[in-house]
Design goal:
The protein is an alpha/beta fold. It contains 11 helices and 10 strands. The model is unreliable at 126-139 and 148-161 (pLDDT under 50). Residues 166-281 form the Response regulatory domain.
Length: 282
């Protein structure tokens, strides 16, 4: 089984190595360290494991992740901590129960993937045995979901406000998501979505300053997603820039009729991307 893994944290090198070397073993997805982005990815991406790649994190960020860990989520999600011994000790002081598994650096992406796979296989059989005794009712699950939403809303009131602008990148190519995140995350808060469905779910409860949208995606392509965004009063004013390898003149004209704020051809040029974003949202 290819387990879904959500990668979080400031250790960009570890996250990039996971995409580069472990994505054939695990289905990797990353998000920014913003509280609401992490909660939204946990709910809609539904990872089997969250991997916190820690590096020079603020205590506020650490506190937010501890809060998320102890929130009553719809499904139990093991938290893996990848950090130096010093950082692991610091996190343990704040919350002894934060990490289900702590992995001390240096450690390779393949070693992390192996540890995740071993952990999930070992605990899956336990869950199978315990499952019959749980017998949850549908109404109880619905109640838990509502309680989660209520908890999240109350947490947002106390969450620190960031001055950085937020960008949602929508692309089914994990290499492109990784590339754009590397280009932009020094300046902007970046969240990623692997398809239009996940992006639209994200925007049901969260807002972003800009959407970078791929043209060719499974199920719903970029133009279909943009049409839904423009039809919804809540999202109709969000700027959208297309990132695509499609250079067919007719298709480009069809997209331009939807009035996106920009259209950049792949391979993406770093300077042109940054220039276009700065002109659009600053």
């Amino acid at each position: 089984m290819r387990y879904k893994v959500l990668l979080v944290g400031n250790n960009k090198a570890t996250i990039e190595d996971m995409f580069l070397h472990a994505n054939s073993i695990l289905e990797c997805q990353s998000t920014s360290i913003r509280f609401d982005d992490i909660v939204c990815h946990l709910k809609y991406f539904q990872p089997h494991v969250l991997v916190y790649c820690m590096h020079n994190e603020t205590r506020d960020t650490m506190s937010q992740l501890i809060t998320i860990k102890h929130t009553k989520l719809e499904r139990k999600t093991p938290f893996f901590l990848v950090a130096t011994q010093e950082d692991c000790d610091e996190m343990r002081k704040m919350s002894a129960e934060f990490a289900d598994v702590s992995l001390i650096k240096p450690i390779t992406a393949l070693q992390i993937a192996e540890k995740i796979t071993e952990y999930m296989k070992r605990n899956f059989s336990i869950q199978e045995e315990e499952a019959p005794t749980a017998a949850p009712l549908i109404s109880a699950e619905q109640q838990k979901t509502q309680e989660l939403l209520d908890d999240i809303e109350s947490m947002f009131e106390d969450a620190p406000i960031t001055s950085r602008k937020h960008i949602l990148v929508v692309d089914d190519d994990f290499r492109m998501l990784k590339l754009i995140k590397r280009y932009l995350d020094d300046t902007y808060d970046i969240a990623t979505a692997i398809n239009g469905k996940v992006a639209l779910k994200f925007l049901e409860t969260k807002m972003t300053n800009l959407i970078l949208l791929d043209y060719e995606m499974p199920e719903e392509n970029g133009p279909a997603v943009l049409e839904k965004l423009r039809a919804n009063p809540v999202t109709s004013s969000i700027p959208v820039i297309f990132l695509t390898g499609i250079n067919d003149r007719k298709k480009i004209q069809q997209v331009l009729m939807l009035k996106p704020q920009g259209y950049l051809l792949k391979p993406i040029d770093h300077d042109k991307l940054v220039e276009t974003i700065e002109k659009t949202i600053g």
